[in-house]
Structure formats: C-alpha cells, structure tokens
Amino acid sequence: MRHLSGDGFKNMRTLAAGMLAFVLLFSGAANAHRPYFRVYSDWIKVGADEYQVQGWYGDGIFIGDPVRVILRHRNGGMAAWTDFFMQASAFCPSLDFCWGFTYGPLGLFPDIWRLDPSAIKRPEAVADPEDGYSLGYPTDLKSEPQGFTSSSNVLMYPVAWGRYLSQPAAFGGIILATPVVIFWLLRRWAKNFSIRFLLSICVFLSSSFLILITFLYGLGISIFVPFIVAAGIKRLIPLVKARLKPA
C-alpha cells in the first residue's frame, strides 16, 4: 500500500491554505448597497408613451441580489413586474412580444413570464427615476405580479438560457467552474499517486466551493459550459491522435 511522504503532507497543507485563500478572496466582505436597475431592452414607444424593460435589484448581502423584471415608463414609474428571484433577464423586441425570465440557482428551468399589453397603464411619475429606492424595495412589493403572467411556453427556454449567458453573472460561473474541470482533467492524466491524491482534494474543494456559490448567488447554467467544453476536448483528443498516427 502506498503512503504519502512528508513532502506530500506538506504539499497538502500548502494546497489547503491556497484553497482557503481562494475562498476568502472570491467571497469578499458583505457590502450593503442601494437597490439598482439594469437595462434589459431599448426604449419602446407606444403612442405618446415610452417603456423600457429593466431588472430591479435589491441587496442580498450574503446571497445573490433579489431581482424582479419590471416594465418602467419614461417617467420612472413601474407599469408591470414579475415575482422576484436570484437572477433575471428579458427578451422584449416589442410590448406585444415581451418575455421576462427569472432563474433559480441552476437556471435550467427558469420561470417564464409574458407581458400582457392590455394590462399596462401609465404609472405615476417618481421624483428621481435613477434612485433605486424610488419604487421602494424589490422584496417589499407585497402585491402579486402585475402585467406579467406566468407562461408554460417551453419553447422560450433556449431564449432564456441564451439571455442568461449574455449577462455578467454567467462569466462568474464559467470562471469558477473552470478550475474544477482543469483539476479533474489533470487527475485523469496524472500517473503519480501523490499527485493524483492532491488533485482529488483540489477537485473536491473547488467543486464544493462552486456548489456553495451557485446556490447562494444563482450562477445558473453557465457552470456547465466548462464541463461541456472539457467533454468535447476529451472526445476530440483520441481522434486527433488517430489522425496524426503514422499509417
């Protein structure tokens, strides 16, 4: 039976310290902030009025910022809104074909919301449209979703996935999932027992951290991208070797 040498245990301590530093670096300190808006569409003109689909984000402190998809009038008022969740996006080329998407931690089956143009009424103006508190606070809005109705149109799933992957949070998921894939690939290729053991610890720690952050911040389907790429590379390498092998 093979055992780790003293150097092996020393490497394990170094690895553990490095992973702890990684967690502390990317976790960051809790930093409260005001609610804020993120633009999801261009301004859409309807008669004398103009509307824009936005995300209205609160402050999650230790978890992801809760967000609603909202339809805002040019005067800053809110004409329609969905329920809130961990992540959101929208696809709205016109008010007659306008969809909002809210996502859970993995984002595989997002809630799909369709805007009902007939339910839209001009809202009251707000004093400062840029102030996140101008509409109150996203999670304090006690009323049911208004103007947006829940839809079971599964054909919109690909659109929802694509819209999510175009958002900044998706890049965080890809970045955090990449080390897991790299450690996993290196472990499969490593021949030395001590190195394989250390890489197994790396896989466990990095994947545990990825799962934790995913369920706290809703990284969504972006975490699967490096795994899909790695699976493609794994299948491609034997084909390339076979082509390069002398006849």
Task: Give a verbal description of the structure.
- By secondary structure, the protein is of the alpha+beta class.
- It folds into two domains: about 5-30 and about 170-245, no CATH class; about 35-165, no CATH class.
- Helices cover about 40% and strands about 20% of the residues.
- The protein contains five helices and nine strands.
- The protein has helices at about 5-25, 155-165, 170-190, 195-215, 225-245, and strands spanning about 35-40, 45, 50-55, 65-75, 80-85, 85-95, 95-105, 110-115, 150.
- Strands 1, 2, 3, 4 and 5 form a five-stranded antiparallel beta sheet that branches. Strands 6-7-8-9 form a four-stranded antiparallel beta sheet, with helices on one face.
- The two termini are about 40 Å apart.
- Mean pLDDT is about 80; it is low at about 20-30.
> What integer value in Å does the Rg equal?
23 Å
Estimated helix fraction: 25-40%
Shape: elongated
Largest sheet: 5 strands, antiparallel
Please describe the topology of this protein.
Layout: H1 6-27, E1 36-39, E2 44-46, E3 49-57, E4 67-73, E5 78-85, E6 87-94, E7 97-103, E8 111-115, E9 148-151, H2 157-165, H3 168-189, H4 193-217, H5 225-244
Antiparallel strand pairs: 1-3, 2-3, 3-4, 4-5, 6-7, 7-8, 8-9
Helix pairs in contact: 1-4, 3-4, 3-5
Features:
alpha+beta, 247 residues, four-stranded antiparallel β-sheet
Structure, briefly:
With 247 residues, the protein is α+β, with helices and mostly antiparallel strands. It is built from 5 helices and 9 strands; from the N terminus they run αβββββββββαααα. The protein has helices at residues 6-27, 157-165, 168-189, 193-217, 225-244; strands spanning 36-39, 44-46, 49-57, 67-73, 78-85, 87-94, 97-103, 111-115, 148-151.
